[in-house]
Amino acid sequence: MQLRVSHVSALTPSVRLIRLESTDGQPLPAFEPGSHLALGFDIGHEPTQRKYSLVSDPQGGAYYEIAVKKSPNGRGGSKFLHEKLAVGALLESSSPISEFSIAPDAKHYVLIAGGIGITPMLSIIVRLRQTGASFELHYSSKTRAEVVFQDVLLGEDCDRVTLYFTESDSFRRIDINQLLKTHAQQADAHFYVCGPSTLIDRVRLAAGAHGVQAKRVHFESFGPAWSMTDGPVKLGLSESNIEVDVPVGTTLLDAMEAAGAWVAADCRRGECGACITTYTSGKPIHRDNCLTEEQRAHAFCPCVSWASSLGTLTLQV
Length: 317
Fold this sequence. Notes:
Elements: E1 2-12, E2 15-22, E3 36-43, E4 46-53, E5 64-69, H1 77-83, E6 90-93, E7 108-114, H2 119-131, E8 134-141, H3 150-153, E9 161-165, H4 176-183, E10 189-194, H5 197-209, E11 217-220, E12 233-237, E13 242-246, H6 252-258, E14 277-281, E15 284-285, E16 299-300, E17 306-307, E18 312-315
Parallel strand pairs: 7-8, 7-10, 8-9, 10-11, 12-18
Antiparallel strand pairs: 1-2, 1-6, 2-5, 3-4, 3-6, 12-13, 14-16, 14-18, 15-17
């Protein structure tokens, strides 16, 4: 479907709220809490698709809203939406996609968010409040000034919300291990996490360590992310006899495919494990959400993970 940008505003210096309406004035359909849109637009002359969580009322109606954090090390999608997108612009959009839905059999919900990962939690919180469900939110941000949607989070039921700041005088990190340990034996408690891949990874691994069933751990990730410390990677494919230099901003999987290598792939978000391959040299930087620590000693997900610029990362492809 096609949506028109009807409003934009800055929530923080790095986060922009974008309101989208139908082009014919008709109400937009309701969506499941935790849903996202896949938006299509051109960066330069290249068609691009990016996924953004819906932060507006799940009942739908006159508009949808998304909140986009500008990433200086991303693939250009957030930069385009911050610097180029204007009111009146038209965007191609999917219907709302639900891959982070509320588990109906849970009796308590432990929500864990980092940075812009708070976005899918907003509609979930709205629904949990409406139904009177038991929940708690643990939200980590660099500083209080970077906390978005404070009116929603710190209004009703604010005693259920705990804020953590990692770059301020009141430094405090979420104790993931203790949080999982506290609720591990509560069989009807479910965990929801969204944020940096490192946060998702910590929750996932802690859950396994405390015997929490995988079906009780839900996470949302939208694909690869780069760090300011990332540099270009020299990639070697031993079975294909291919070497390629990969710049920051291009995934290793995309580079492999562009070089003519065939690699199985599905989600491209580091979740399904379809692209897992074996590495024999190099220093991988794991950013997947599917491998165990033991598997990471030899296995690698090229769809989201990266590597040190020192030496060559050699994959058996």
